[in-house]
Specification:
The protein is built from seven helices and two strands; from the N terminus they run H-H-H-H-H-E-E-H-H. The chain has about 140 residues and is mainly alpha-helical. The protein has one domain: Winged helix-like DNA-binding domain superfamily/Winged helix DNA-binding domain (Arc Repressor Mutant, subunit A), CATH 1.10.10.
Length: about 140
């Protein structure tokens, strides 16, 4: 499982970093912001299903902003390093400040063709991982 999970994680990081000038620090920070923003939907099966498609981007009011401080803590990264990465992501148009301390991913960036291709690739990589896990004898209920 560790080998398969490592392969999936590495594929994800390479794909996301490619969108960010191959900067892996930015990729990690961007993915953490995205996951934090989508957290409320992950716990709600109806919302999760409603916004599961490539063309169905969740509106801002359903996404949860994250502070740079909370982001740094969740990643176990120094605050200043995280703050600089967030600033660069803002400059590149991937995230924006929505309040004094809240950061959200930019819906218009997520809707760009390159980002849609990335999501589609992630879907294919997920299917590949599920297949590898099954071939390795790992049972996946409901998948």
């Amino acid at each position: 499982m560790a080998r398969i999970g490592g392969d999936y994680t590495l594929r994800t990081m390479i794909a996301v970093a490619a969108q960010l000038d191959h900067d892996y620090s930015l990729a990690v920070v961007y993915l953490a912001i995205l996951q934090a923003n989508l957290g409320p939907m992950m716990d709600d099966p109806a919302l999760s299903a409603k916004y599961a498609g490539v063309d169905t981007i969740a509106p801002e009011d359903l996404r949860r902003p994250i502070s740079v401080h909370a982001l740094a803590g969740s990643l176990h990264m120094p605050y200043e390093t995280t703050r600089r990465c967030v600033g660069r992501l803002i400059d590149k148009g991937f995230v924006k400040r929505v309040s004094r301390s809240g950061i959200l991913t930019c819906a218009d960036k997520v809707a760009e063709p390159a980002q849609k291709r990335l999501v589609e690739q992630q879907y294919q990589d997920t299917l590949r991982m599920v297949g590898q896990l099954r071939r390795g004898g790992i049972e996946l209920d409901g998948v």
